[in-house]
Amino acid sequence: MAKKFYRSRTNRMIAGICGGMAEHLDVDPSLVRLIAVALVLAGGLSIWVYLIAWIIVPEQPAA
Asked: Which residues, listed in sequence order, are joined to residue 59 by a DSSP beta bridge?
């Protein structure tokens, strides 16, 4: 069964998008955050993408 992508409840800095992505990919959340910041600064990823993901991606269900 495929894992679903959720915003993290426990591993969040702002909205939990990077933490949720890290949990989904089984990687360190700091790595995902660094890559996201690097993409934003390089102009490859807009802050609007993060805000839209914040709205669209559901929060992880309570345990």
From this structure: 7
CA 62 vs CA 1, 3, 14, 27, 55: distances in Å = 20, 16, 18, 22, 18
pLDDT tens sequence for the chain (63 residues)? 778 888 988 888 889 999 999 999 999 999 999 999 998 898 877 888 889 999 999 998 887
Residue 14 is given by DSSP the state S
With the CA atoms of 33, 51, 45 and 6 taken in that order, what torsion angle do they form, in degrees rounded to the nearest 10?
50
